[in-house]
Amino acid sequence: MHYLILGSFPPHKDKRDYPFFYPNTRNRFWKILADLSGEKLQWAKIDEAKAVQERYEIMKRLKVGVQNLGYEIHRKRKSALDTNIRIMEFHNIISILRTHPEIKRILLPGFSATHSTAKSFIKYLQQKEITVDSIPDFKPEATFKIYFDKRWIDCVILNSTSTASKIKYEFLLDQFRRNLM
């Protein structure tokens, strides 16, 4: 795994199409990764197990890992918006970085909301006292580095893949291509 992509937290259970990361087919995340890998998505609404397997194969092909920052959250109603989610407890991202010293870059899709992936990740780093070379401007493709286990890891902030963000698909695809390949 050369890349780790973090999200904030999955949508409400009622809005999940399969039991995996980014489980709502309206979100463009897996379509972007599928297009970058040359794969086609076919199983999400037909067979949950096959949907998970095809996404896992895409991750392997792109050398990408995916994880949510939030382990436990407070959510307003059934909303999936970062403006309506507050992370109460973080997943152990340190264990992922320690287990995978080959990680070169962390991608953080989502930056504008108070509890966005990028802002929540900075909060996590501060809580864990992980060295950050500089607090980034929270804007698309802003970069910073973290120092962990005697190595520097690049981090880049990307636009959210949510359809609520109104960013054109082609722009997102290019942005992910520039930062994954």
Helix % is: 25-40%
Helix-strand sequence: EHHEEEHEHEEEH
- Name given to the CATH homologous superfamily: Uracil-DNA glycosylase-like domain
Task: Kindly report the CATH topology.
Answer: Uracil-DNA Glycosylase, subunit E
Radius of gyration: 15 Å
How much strand?
15-25%
Major β-sheet strand ordering: 2-1-5-8-7-6
Structural class by sheet pairing and helices: alpha/beta
Low-confidence stretches: none
* Largest β sheet strand count, sense and barrel closure: 6 strands, mixed
Tally of DSSP helical segments: 5
Number of separate domains: 1
pLDDT averaged residue by residue: 89
Count the E strands: 8
Q: How is this structure best summarized?
A:
With 181 residues, the chain is an alpha/beta fold. It has a single domain, classed as Uracil-DNA Glycosylase, subunit E (3-Layer(aba) Sandwich). 30% of the residues lie in helices and 24% in strands.
